Amino acid sequence: MKQVFFSHFLCFLSLFWFTSVSAKSRLGEYYLGFGYSMADGDKQSSHDTGDILSIMANSPATQSADWRLALEYGNYDLVPDGDKTSWGLTLDYIMHYDDYVFQNGMFRPYFGIGLGYFSDGAKIHLNDNGFNWSLMVGSEMLFTDDLSMYFGGSFYGMWSDFGDNDWKWDVGFTWWINDIHGISIDYQRPAEKDMNFIGLKYLYSWQ
């Protein structure tokens, strides 16, 4: 299962690396995202799998900051616990530093803060349910006018217990087919949870 999982991920990376069809970004744009992700465990969770559906909306707050609202629902098959579900709602405020770009504008660093709520029966995100906080940092890298990559991570935890926290790596490729339609491939890996997440999103931009 793991070999198939990573083979698919490498194929997707190859597709996005060699395909380039203006400059469109995941930052500073109005768009909706509709996604599906699959989860695959490793190490002590090697038999665990999951399917996640998500919807998100991104809206500029200022010329250098965005609001991002996201809702996700996941169903997981865990050993030995069986079927478990998880859902979460998050609201993030993301600041992108366009005035400090370098390498001819190829890199766009960002920093964000967020609030959310998770009902996590699968204990995939954290070990408890309730309100949570998050801090995000990373950069977008623009290859062409339509093809970009982002890489970074987020540090997140429970409001009720600051000791219940984790770090998650995040990388993705985005291809804007035109000014309206886009596709993205995303990969996430928590530091403490032995799970890999790979997702496909359809992006719809109305401006």
Brief write-up:
The protein contains 1 helix and 10 strands; from the N terminus they run H-E-E-E-E-E-E-E-E-E-E. It has one helix spanning 2-18; strands at 31-41, 49-62, 65-78, 82-96, 107-120, 130-142, 147-158, 165-176, 181-190, 195-204.
Which descriptors apply to this entry?
207 residues; 1 helix; Porin; globular; mainly beta; 10-stranded antiparallel barrel; single chain; 10 strands
Instruction: State the end-to-end CA separation.
Output: 40 Å
The CATH topology: Porin
What's the architecture in CATH terms? Beta Barrel
> Helical segment tally?
1
Strand line-up across the major sheet: 1-2-3-4-5-6-7-8-9-10
> Could you tell me the radius of gyration in angstroms?
17 Å
Name the overall outline: globular
Structural class: mainly beta
Describe the structure.
The protein has one domain: Porin, CATH 2.40.160.20. It has 1 helix and 10 strands, in the order αββββββββββ. Strand 2 and strand 3 form a beta hairpin. The protein is globular, with a radius of gyration of 17 Å.
